[in-house]
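Fold these two proteins, one after the other.
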Amino acid sequence: MNTTRVRRFLQDEQGVTAIEYGLLAALIGVGIITAAALLGTKIGDLFTTIANKLGAAST
C-alpha cells in the first residue's frame, strides 16, 4: 500500500509543471520590467529632445 502511494507520488508531474510555469512567468516578468526600464528612459529622452526642438522652432 505504501509503495503504491510512493510510486504514484513520483509519477505525478502536476506539481513540477506548476513550478515550471511559475518560473517561466517570473522570468518573463523580469524581462518585461527590464525592457520597460531601458525603453522608458530612452523614450523620455526622445520626447524631451522633440519638445526642445519644437520650442526652439516656435521662437
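Now the second one:
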Amino acid sequence: MTDVHTDKPLIIAGKTYRSRLLTGTGKYKDMTETRLATEASGAEIVTVAVRRTNIGQTPGEPNILEVLPPDRYTILPNTAACYTAEDAVRTCRLAREMLDGHNLVKLEVIGDEKTLYPDITATLAAAQQLVKEGFDVMVYTTDDPIIAKRLEEIGCVAVMPLAAPIGSGLGIQNPYNILTILENAKVPILVDAGVGTASDAAVCMELGCDGVLMNTAIAGARQPVLMASAMKKAVEAGREAFLAGRIPRKRYASASSPVEGRFF
C-alpha cells in the first residue's frame, strides 16, 4: 500500500518538484505582495503572462524576474490573452528568446472573452506546432477526457483541465470528468482555473490530481499572503488524504467498533 512517505514525485519535463501548488503572478497590488504570497505558497513553479508582465521586454520598467528570480523558481511563461493559435505560438517564441532558450511554457488559447473558456481547435493546433518546435508544453484545456488524451498524444508534458471558468471560484464542477482524465493519463494532470478557497484545492488533490495551478484565488483574497499559506496546506493535506484512502460514503451511520457478541 502506498503511503505519503513513498509518494511518487511530481516530475514535469524531466525536473522533479516538491511542491504540487503552482501559482500565478498577476492581480497582486504590487511586486512586494507578489513575492510574499509566492513565498507563503511554497510554489516552485510560477506562471507569468508574457503579454501582460515585463520579463525584460520593456527596459526601465519593473521586472517580475527581479522579485521571483529564475535561479529560485521555475518560470512558466503563459499565453494568457491569446485568442488564436498563431498569437500563442508567437508569444511562446518571444518568451523563449527573452528567457535564454527556456522551453517550458503554459499554453492557453482563449475562445470566449466572457467565460475565458479555451478554444480547443486552436489549442490543439498551437500544441502541435509548439511541440514540433521543441517546447515543453503544459496545456490549459476543458475537462473533456477525449481532448485531454489527444493533447497528451500530441506530446504535451502536462495537461491542465479547468475545474470551472477562470476566476470563478466555483471549485470542481465535473469531478467525474477529472477522474476519467486521471485514469487514462500518462502525464501529470493539474487542475487549472476555478479554485476559490482551500477546500477546493484539497478536493482537487483528493481526486488524485498531480497538482493545482491558481492565481485569482490567492491574489483576489482579502489577505493574499494568508490565503497562499492556506492553499499550501490544503494541497499537502489533499495529497495525503488521497494517498491514505478515504472511507466509502454510506447512507447510514455505522458503529466504529463491532457490536457482535456484546453483552448488554
